[in-house]
Design a protein that fits this description.
Structural class: alpha/beta
Shape: rod-shaped
Distance between the termini: 109 Å
Bound molecules: guanosine-5'-triphosphate
Strand content: 5-15%
Largest sheet: 9 strands, mixed
Number of strands: 16
């Protein structure tokens, strides 16, 4: 008995420690996901049949350790795909599987554990248990094709879904913790009418509490608790139907004195009536069944089974909070039909039942009785039969109450350990299974994310290594480049300015002398038509000279274009010389013909046509003096002083033209 207690306590403490560690891990994971790294959600798929055959990794020390290859990808990034190896963890480790990239796998330490030791089967470990996200419920909820789905899911939204899951898991862990810590355990005592259930409960309590009668008398479910749970007061609480009981809330029950129990029970007509009976137990914790320091057992004395009570009791027994069902059968009558039906169903639900064969002392042929009862138990609850020594007890509750009885003491001891064993199963196992699944999920997440992080780190380091010398080179060459650029710019603009001035001055001087501004083929001074055509002649001369000035402007522009082109080439060359390889070059394209344009529409058009970024405008400045009617207006003075007239016009304009 003490062994069972110790084992239970040790297991419970270990589990509580593991629950707390898991909580810390989850909260760290949550913070990490929120502040440092968007946790990626891996998807592991089987590889093609040929590739997915288990890989056996063997060394001289360890002949056998099966690993499985899987293809790892991420829902939010279909481009990332890599092969990974799932290796079962070693015995004693909380982790069920280890995920490693193929490259790491060969370097993994080997173990000689056999596969049976694994906590989770390899195929199971490739999937999530607690953190399984239903990605079909993506933002629009309607998509079913994986490709469409992926495009809906962004890294951040998956990380949010995951955060919700972690939050829910933390809440669940808190509940599990409460359950593991909860010391209360409920034992339901049921059986045939008049089998002696109340007498048995009284014998366990070493006190006459439950009403005992030769006629069927227990008509309510009486749940017996230690009075310590009721501030030390012995009392009866009559529960109200349909209202959840809370000891702190008096509106949920009616108080009564313990002495009223008998009359309340006998007068009750409600088959589902529940009573809470708070009893003081003067015995020491080692003797007391109700409050033994490890689990606080509450006994529920149920009404005898008949057609009315059968269903209610079966529902009651099925409740999760009922750890153990004790079935009392009279040694005189063996199992009735109702008993058989109940036992059959209950043993399907709970597997193991605790059976008390009561009123055993009166039986003359005890061996026969024992044999017959056990035969029936074998049929009704095979698992209980297998463990009959601990689970089937032949006692006489009535006499156990009066004098010490070895068989009854054995029963008590077995019942306590059975409650503990069952509690370990009902309260500790769900928590430890959940933790195993949870940690296996965390492991999968961590493993997959480590692989992504490593890939990203490698890529970032490569980028950094590539960029660092480039940056250094660019930093060092910056000053020289600035200077050279300035030089090219200044040289180009001063040369353009000088050449423009030269060309235009020259043209104006020549026009002033009555000659064409520039000599070009096809442009000649008109010939004198005689005095009668002098007016027209003056106009023609004016037009020709103005056109020659236009041509001079055009020449100056062309010259500036050439100079600028050379400058631009030099700038590009400087870029080539200073910018290291791999640095993106400017896409801007210089189009000399676009210089000197003031026409925005034309510029846009040219940009569309070339498809490149343009510098400058399109066409010439277009001052076209030879086309301007105001300039062509011939005056009386033109006839006498053509040369003087032009000098007045162009000495005013020359400064503007220089600036163009
Ligand atoms: N000789 C003997 N009589 C017993 C024993 N247990 C119970 N009885 C008697 O059997 C009768 C019924 O006992 P109860 O304890 O009331 O039986 P019960 O199963 O609680 O009855 P209901 O709840 O009304 O179905 C009473 O007269 C008891 O004195 C026993 O171990 N030996």
């Amino acid at each position: 008995m003490e062994d069972v207690q110790e084992k239970y306590l040790e297991q419970k403490e270990r589990l509580l420690g593991a629950i707390d560690s898991a909580k810390t891990i989850l909260s760290d994971l949550r913070i990490f996901n929120r502040d440092s790294w968007v946790v990626r959600y891996p998807q592991l798929r089987d590889q093609s049949a040929e590739e997915s055959t288990p890989v056996e990794v063997s060394t001289s020390k360890a002949p056998k350790r099966k690993s499985i290859r899987r293809s790892l990808s991420f829902a939010d990034d279909p481009t990332f795909q890599t092969d990974v190896v799932l290796t079962p963890a070693r015995k004693g480790m909380a982790r069920s599987m280890t995920l490693a990239s193929i490259a790491d796998e060969t370097a993994e330490e080997q173990s000689n554990e056999e596969d049976e030791d694994r906590l989770v089967a390899p195929s199971d470990a490739a999937d999530f248990h607690v953190f399984r996200l239903d990605l079909k419920l993506g933002s629009h909820g309607s998509s079913s094709s994986p490709a469409a789905l992926v495009s809906q899911l962004e890294k951040a939204s998956i990380a949010n879904l995951l955060d919700d899951r972690i939050g829910a898991s933390m809440n669940h862990i808190n509940k599990l913790r409460q359950r593991v810590e909860d010391k209360s355990s409920k034992v339901l005592v049921t059986g045939d009418l008049n089998a002696g259930k109340s007498t048995f409960v009284n014998a366990l309590l070493k006190r006459e509490v439950m009403p005992v009668d030769q006629q069927p008398c227990t008509t309510a479910f009486c749940e017996v608790h230690d009075a310590a749970d009721n501030d030390g007061k012995e009392e009866l609480h009559i529960l109200k139907e349909g209202i959840p009981y809370s000891r702190e809330d008096e509106s949920t029950y009616t108080r009564a004195d313990l002495s009223e129990l008998e009359s309340i029970v006998s007068e009750n007509e409600n088959v589902q009536q529940m009573l809470k009976v708070y009893l003081r137990d003067a015995r020491s914790p080692t003797e007391s069944l109700l409050s033994n320091g490890i689990v606080d057992i509450s006994l529920i004395d149920a009404p005898g089974l008949n057609r009315d009570s059968m269903k209610t009791t079966a529902v009651f027994a099925r409740q999760e909070e009922i750890d153990v069902v004790v079935f009392v059968v009279s040694a005189e009558n063996h199992f009735t039909l109702s008993a058989k039906e109940f036992l059959w169903n209950a043993s399907n639900e709970k597997a193991y039942l605790f059976i008390v064969v009561n009123k055993y002392e009166q039986i003359r042929d005890k061996a026969k009785c024992r044999r017959l009862v056990l035969e029936q138990i074998k049929q009704l609850s095979p698992r209980t039969f297998e463990d009959a020594e601990d689970l089937v007890h032949f006692v006489d509750s009535a006499s156990a109450f009066q004098k010490d009885s070895q068989s009854f003491e054995n029963l008590e001891s077995s019942l306590r350990s059975f409650v503990l064993v069952k509690r370990a199963k009902s309260k500790l196992t769900p928590a430890s299974t959940y933790l195993t699944h949870l940690l296996s999920d965390v492991d999968l997440l961590v493993g997959a994310n480590a692989i992504v992080a490593e890939t990203e780190l490698e890529r970032a380091l490569e980028d950094l290594n590539r960029s660092r010398p480039v940056l250094e080179k660019m930093k060092n060459g910056r000053e020289a480049l600035d200077e050279s650029l300035e030089h090219v710019e200044e040289a180009g603009s001063s040369r353009s300015r000088m050449r423009t001035k030269e060309i235009l001055n020259d043209a104006l001087v020549r026009v002033g002398q009555g000659k064409l501004g520039v000599e070009v083929s096809g442009l000649n001074m008109p010939s004198y038509p005689g005095f009668l055509g002098i007016w027209e002649y003056a106009r023609e001369v004016r037009k020709t000279l103005l056109t020659s000035v236009d041509i001079a402007v055009k020449l100056a522009e062309d010259e500036a274009r050439k100079i600028t082109s050379t400058g631009v080439d030099k700038v590009f060359q400087l870029g080539e010389d200073h910018l290291p390889e791999g640095v993106e070059r400017s896409r801007r394209v210089f189009m000399p013909e676009a210089m000197f344009s003031t026409d925005k529409l034309a510029r846009k058009k040219a940009r569309r046509q070339s498809g490149a970024l343009l510098a400058g405008g399109v066409y010439t400045l277009g001052i076209s003096l030879g086309q301007r009617p105001d300039m062509l207006e011939t005056t009386f003075f033109d006839i006498f002083d053509v040369q003087h007239q032009f000098r007045i016009h162009f000495s005013d304009k020359s400064s503007e033209e220089e600036g163009c």
